[in-house]
Amino acid sequence: MSQYLFLKKDKIRLLSSQLDSLYWLLVSSEGSSSMTTYTTKQVADRLNMSVSQLQYYDQLGIIPDLQRTANGYRQFTAANVTWLTQVKVFIDSGMPLKDIQRLTTLVLAGKRQTAAQQNAIIADHLAHLKHRQAETAAQITFIENFLAEHPTD
């Protein structure tokens, strides 16, 4: 039960983080008649990433359709930020960047044509996460038992 609550809290935190990012997009583009864009620093701050992370992800091709100004500065659109908000879930869960690159390539190629390949990558990652979850649960049980057997009183 406590493990379920732990996972539920993490899901709520994750959903809350995603909603915060989407709310930020809505508020920051209110009253704007043209397409609002964001600087690398604004997006980095909003997503709790570093500027260098975003630059690296751009180099890897993980941020599709990222535009640049005439001076070469990155211009993030709401769609870019929404994409990154979702990709960040994979990043934060430890999915290898090569898998995220592959997913990005597959998504850009077309969802219907590549759905099976996308699902396979995500299913493999989910299996890895479940394995890590089982290992963590065993470690928690060990530590709880250790503390119960070795009281400090």
Structure description:
This is HTH merR-type domain-containing protein. It holds the Pfam family MerR_1. GO terms for molecular function: DNA binding; DNA-binding transcription factor activity. InterPro entries: DNA-bd_dom_put_sf, MerR-type_HTH_dom, MerR_fam. Residues 37-106 form the HTH merR-type domain. With 153 residues, the protein is mainly α. The chain folds into 2 domains: 1-92, Multidrug-efflux Transporter Regulator, Chain: A, Domain 2; 94-153. It is built from 6 helices and 2 strands; from the N terminus they run αααββααα. The protein has helices at 2-28, 40-47, 51-60, 78-92, 97-109, 111-149; strands spanning 67-68, 74-75. A two-stranded antiparallel ribbon has the order 1-2. β1 (67-68) and β2 (74-75) form a beta hairpin. α1 (2-28) packs antiparallel against α4 (78-92) and α5 runs antiparallel to α6 (111-149). The radius of gyration is 20 Å and the shape is flat. The chain starts with a helix and ends with a helix.
Series of secondary-structure elements, N-terminal to C-terminal: HHHEEHHH
Tell me the number of strands: 2
Query: From the structure provided, what is the oligomeric state, counting identical versus distinct chains?
Result: single chain
Give the helix tally.
6
- Rg, alpha carbons: 20 Å
Give the neighbour order of strands across the main sheet: 1-2
> What portion of residues belong to β-strands?
under 5%
User: Class by helix and strand content?
Assistant: mainly alpha
What gross morphology would you assign?
flat
Supply the CATH architecture of the largest domain. Orthogonal Bundle
Percent of residues in helices: over 70%
Protein name: HTH merR-type domain-containing protein
Keywords: DNA-binding, Repressor, Transcription, Transcription regulation
Pfam families: MerR_1 (PF13411)
GO molecular function: DNA binding; DNA-binding transcription factor activity
